[in-house]
Amino acid sequence: MPAGTTTRVRDERGLVLPTRLLALCISAVAVAALVFVANDPDKPSTDRVATPAAESKPSSTPTPEPTTTPAAPKTPKVKPIKRGEVLVEVFNNTRTKGLAGGVAEKAKAAGWNVVGSDNWYGTIDGTSVYYPPRLKEAARELGRDLGIKKLRAAEEPMRFDRVTVILTDDYR
After folding, report:
1. Which pTM value belongs to this model?
2. Cα 129 to Cα 110: distance, rounded to the nearest angstrom
3. What whole-number distance in Å separates Cα of residue 138 and Cα of residue 145?
4. Nearby residues of 170 by Cβ (< 8 Å), 6 or more positions away
5. Cα separation, 150 vs 145, whole angstroms
């Protein structure tokens, strides 16, 4: 035997004794992991595997089904609207002078980032808040602040990086 080597004592089957100890440790860890997973408190009880406690005789009376209350549907998390980060333009489509400027001031007072107000030329079906898809919730919030219920998707020639308010004669 070369110098510096050690010999391991084998049992009658030829296994090295520390290997048995290692196998025992691995088995113990695996069993502990299974017990932990089976008893996970965060896992719904309907997913757990039930083990029969003891063999019982069938009875003539039916056993009641366990009742479970259905989980409440999860509501998607909506990020809060940061009014100061949303660009807003307000347009007047009426003969009332200064209407867009007054509504723009009202929006500014509510915290919105109003970047302009002017007159709108064209036929509009009623006072509305127009929005690009990513700003729909902001448009809804702005509409609440200004008392405008009608929301519509933005269309040309509107800008698609902001919310656009167009006021008509039905605005109070």
Report:
1. 0.55
2. 16
3. 11
4. 126, 127
5. 13
Q: Token pair 């196998």 is at which residue?
A: 23
CA atoms of 138 and 72, how far apart (whole Å): 27
Residue that has been written with the tokens 């998390």 in this structure: 77
Q: 3-state class of 28 per DSSP?
A: helix
User: What is the crossing angle of helices 99-109 and 136-146, to 10°?
Assistant: 110
Q: Residue type at 52?
A: P
Angstrom CA distances, 43 to 47, 53, 65, stand at 7, 21, 21
Question: Amino acid identity of 73?
Answer: P
Tokens of 172: 């109070």
Cβ neighbours of residue 18 closer than 8 Å, sequence gap 6 or more: 8
CB under 8 Å to 166, separation ≥6 — which residues? 91, 93, 120, 124, 127, 128, 130
Residue spans of beta strands (DSSP E) within 16-69: none
Helix (H, G, I), strand (E, B) or coil at 119: strand
Express each pLDDT in 65-116 by its tens digit.
656 666 666 666 667 889 999 999 999 999 999 999 999 999 999 999 999 9
The first and second tokens of residue 115, run together, are: 């970047």
Q: What is the mean pLDDT of residues 13-20?
A: 60
Question: CB of 89 within 8 A of CB of 117?
Answer: yes
